[in-house]
Amino acid sequence: MTTTAATFRALHHDRATGDPLVLPGPWDAASARVFADAGFPALATPSAGIAASLGYEDGSTPPQEMFAAVTRIVRAVAVPVSADVEGGYGLAPAELVGRILDTGAVGCNLEDSDGRGTLKDPRRHADWLAEVRSAAGDALFINARVDTFLFGTGDPADAVERARLYVAAGADCVYPLRAPTEALPLLRDGIEGPLNMAAGPAPESVAELGRLGATRITFGPGMQRYAMGKIGDLAAALRA
Fold it and tell me: Is the dihedral of CA 67, 103, 29, 230 positive or negative?
């Protein structure tokens, strides 16, 4: 089954408060099938979860291995998949877009820090996002990650300022990583369009973020780590 960015984009719009789009984070083809079989309408890969599954530290996965892993996930399911491609691996916008589309993914996460704990200049990053949008046309849903709560001041106003630049550059959605729940109403009021928040792998976490105005909820590597924790418990019990 072929899915499109338009199908995926439509899932983000006209959502009532308290009814966010929940996107589980598969780290391989098998986990992707589990989530799709559970009835989720789309999935969003976590770069850290895929890195762990391939034996790498977060941020250290070679691009060709990340794209190959995303390809296997997309091939395994019949629902749209968005790929976390970190900061774009230093690829030129047109090449990056081509590599993402070759995987079959219809969306991507692009972060505004350099992988070494330093925030990128927001205007230069917005210009780069605009080039990605130009290269992709409507073929990719762009989720612009904002890392000010991770590496910056933690001031919601800083996140809103960056978010507005990225939306103006063509981002479909904004993802203020590690934003505290108390900042969500301010972010929701200041940012136009879909807003992505990260939840823990628990229904109550999802429900709270939806109530506070999150449009879309993802889990980062949380589901992969949860699964590995359960396997660790099983291994310990069997060993005992």
Answer: positive
| pLDDT digit string, tens, across residues 168-195 | 999 999 999 999 999 999 999 999 999 9
What does the pLDDT look like over 32-70, one tens digit per residue? 999 999 999 999 999 999 999 999 999 999 999 999 999
- One-letter identity of residue 165: L
pTM of the model: 0.96
Q: What residues contact residue 173 under an 8 Å CB cut-off, 6+ apart?
A: 12, 141, 142, 143, 144, 193, 194, 195, 196, 215, 216
Report the phi/psi class of residue 45: left, alpha or beta, with left for phi > 0 and alpha for psi in -120 to 50. beta
Q: C-alpha distances in angstroms, 58 versus 36, 46, 116, 147?
A: 25, 10, 11, 16
